[in-house]
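Annotated sample (chain length 200).
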Amino acid sequence: MILVGYSGHAYVAYGIAQAAGIAVSGYCDSEEKTQNPFNLTWYGSEESDAAKAAIKKVGYFVAIGDNNIRKKVTKKLITGYPSSNIIHPTAVIAADAFIKNPGIMVSAGVIINPLAIIEAGAICNTGCIIEHECEIGKYAHIGPGAILCGNVKVGECSFIGAGAVIKQGIVIGANCIIGAGAVVVKNVADNCQVKGVPAQ
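Output written by the structure step:
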């Protein structure tokens, strides 16, 4: 597999891939990184001939933490080549949860309970809990240790900060930012940022 993007978030993606027994042979980025902790081969940008050949051969994962950039890059790549999901072996995922391709990352210690839906390109970061019947939209990011109680809906490209708690049944719109440690007890409209206890 090739990583598209190679910085902090990609380092976590690399660790998940290794734990899951997926070989990572290189990375694509706009420029070669001076910091290369895993000694990966640089294939140029994702649009280079070398990158396209490598991606076609071994597949890829878009390892970019920024939701909107991840969406943009994925949409450029997805029409031509298959993407992968990467799921850490310590994640606990109910048999009747729905993990939809492509490009989903599920980190160590994540719990995803029955009938939850995880859409394409979403990130479920370390130790977050996604309860029954939650819906995580495309390219959303659930931060480390966040807790989503049952029936929570998170819109496309929204970010839930580390340790945030979302009350059961809450709807969070698209392109929202929920601050770290926030407790969300009412719905959040599209394009809003909230923080605090209770979040506002």
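Annotation: The two ends are 41 Å apart (CA to CA).
Annotation: The CA atoms of residues 28 and 48 lie 9 Å apart.
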